[in-house]
Fold this protein.
Amino acid sequence: MISRKKILVYLGTPVALLSVGGMLAFNNPNEQYFEIAKNLDIFATLFKEINTYYVDDVNPSKAIKTGIDAMLGSLDPYTNYIPEDEIEDYRTMTTGQYGGIGAVISQRNGRVIVMMPYEGFPANKSGMRIGDELLEVDGVDVTKKNTGDVSKLLKGQAGTKLKIKIKRFGEKEPKMLELTRERIKIDNVPYHGMVTADVGYLRLTDFTQDAGKEVRKAIVDLKEKGAKKIIFDLRDNPGGLLNEAVNISNLFIDKDKEVVSTRGKVVEWNKSYKALNSPLDTDIPVVVLTSGRSASASEIVGGVIQDYDRGVLIGQKTYGKGLVQTTRMLTYNSQLKVTTAKYYIPSGRCIQAIDYKNRNSDGSAGKIADSLKIAFKTTNGRVVYDGGGVAPDITVERTAYAPITISLENKGLFFDYATEYYYSHPSIAPAKEFKLTDAEYTAFVAWLKNKEYDYTTKLETTIKDLEEVSKKEKYYDDIKERINNLKASVSHNKEQDLTKHKAEISEVLEAQIVSRYYLEKGVTEASFDNDPEIQEAVKLFSNMTKYQDILKGTAAKK
C-alpha cells in the first residue's frame, strides 16, 4: 500500500505537489512480491560476500550507488537516485534558490574566474567583476580547488558574512571584498524588452516557482511599452514545474481549456490539468522560439500554443521529453526521482522520444521512421505528429561556428581580450548599438599573434580519414598525389580565417565585451540584430498575412 502523503511530481526538474493514494496494480501480486524479495536477498548476500572476500577494501556507499545507478539507468535517463549528500544541490536545482553571493564561476587555465555576477545580488553590489580571479574565501586558499569546492565555500546561510580575496586585471595587489550572503532567487525571466517599436521579446530560462507571474509581468510591461506582438523565447529551457507550465499556457488560452494530461501505471495518479484563470491576452500575435534543448515544461507550453493555433513556433524541433517524474522519500534522507507517467498535450500527442538513446549530437530527439509516427490535428485542422519533440512551424537551422571561432572560445581568448578591452575603455555604446570598428578588430587580430589557438577543420579531418583508409585498402600509392594536392588546397591559414570569418568572430567578441558593461541583459540585447530565429520572427511579424496563413494551415512549412 502506498502511504497517503505529499510527493513531488515534475517534468525536467521538480514540479507540482500532488496528493496520492492507492495500491500498485500487478497482474500477480504474490508472484511479483516473491521475485522482489528473492532478488533483494540475492543482492544483499552478494554484496556481503564481495565485502568479505574481495582483495581490496570496498566503499559500501560508492559500490551500492553504482549498482543503483546502473539499475535505474536501464529504465530511462530521468529516473535517478539522490543520496543525502546531494540533496542540497538538488533543492537548489529544483527551486532556483540558495544562500550565496549570486555569481557564476568557472575554471579557466587552472584559475577560478568570475564569469557573471547577477545584477542586484551581493557579488554585483560588492563590485565583483567578470574576469576577477578568486584567491581566498574566508581565508581558505582556493587557487588549487575545483569549481564545485569553491562554490560550496561561497554558499551558506543568508545573512552570514564572508570575505573574498580576488586578483583583478591590471592591479598588482589583490583586493579584499566583504559580502553578506543573501537568499539568491534567479529570475525565470532574466530579460524582457523591445526588439522593434512594436515587437516585444521575453526569454524564459526556467520553470521554477513564480515563473508564471514573471511571464505575466513581463508581457504586461512590454504591452505598456508599445508591444503589439510578442516573441517568447523558450530556446534551451530544460523545463521545471508542471503547474508553472500550466500557468504560463493559461496566459494565452481561455479558462477551462486543457493544457496537459498525465497517464501512467497508477490510474489514481492520472490527471488532466486545465487553465484555471482568465487569460491575459488571447489575441496578441505570438512567436515561440524553440531549440533542440527546449525540453519538458517548455514543450508543453510550445505544444499548447501550437495545438490551439495560438501562435507560430520558429526554430528547431524540441528535445522530446514527455515523461513525468515524482520524488519519493527513501530511508536515511535519500530520495528517488522516478518516472511515473507520460504527459499528453491538447491534440492528444505525447512528445516523448520513442527511442531514449536515438538522439542527435545536441541531445535532441533523433529522426524516426514516418511509419512510427501518429498524426494528430490542431484546433484549425493542421496535422502534427508525435514520436519525439514538437516540430516548429518554421525551421531555422542553428548556425555552426567555424573551427577558428570554436578554438578562440575554448581557449578563452574572447574572454581574456574582452577583459583587457574593458579596463582600457571606460564606456561603450548601448548594448543594442555597440559594434567593433575595423580598427578594433585589427587590434584584436594583432593581439592574437602570440596566442595559441590551433584547430583542425572538418574537411582536414575528412582528408586525413581518407588517407588512412586508402592506406589500409592499399590504394594510397595510386591517389597519393591527389590527396597531397587536397591537403595543400584546404590547409587552413589562421590569418585568412580571421578575415574570412570576421563577421562571426566579431559577433562573439562583441557579446563578450558588452557583458563587461551591461552583464547578462546586455548580452541578450546585443544578439538581436544577428540572432537568426529572432530575425525570422521579426520578418514574419512584418507579414501578418503569412502569420495567419500558417495558423490556418494554408501556408507551407519552411
About this structure: The CA atoms of residues 225 and 333 lie 49 Å apart. Confidence is low (pLDDT under 50) at residues 1-9, 13-26. The radius of gyration is 27 Å.
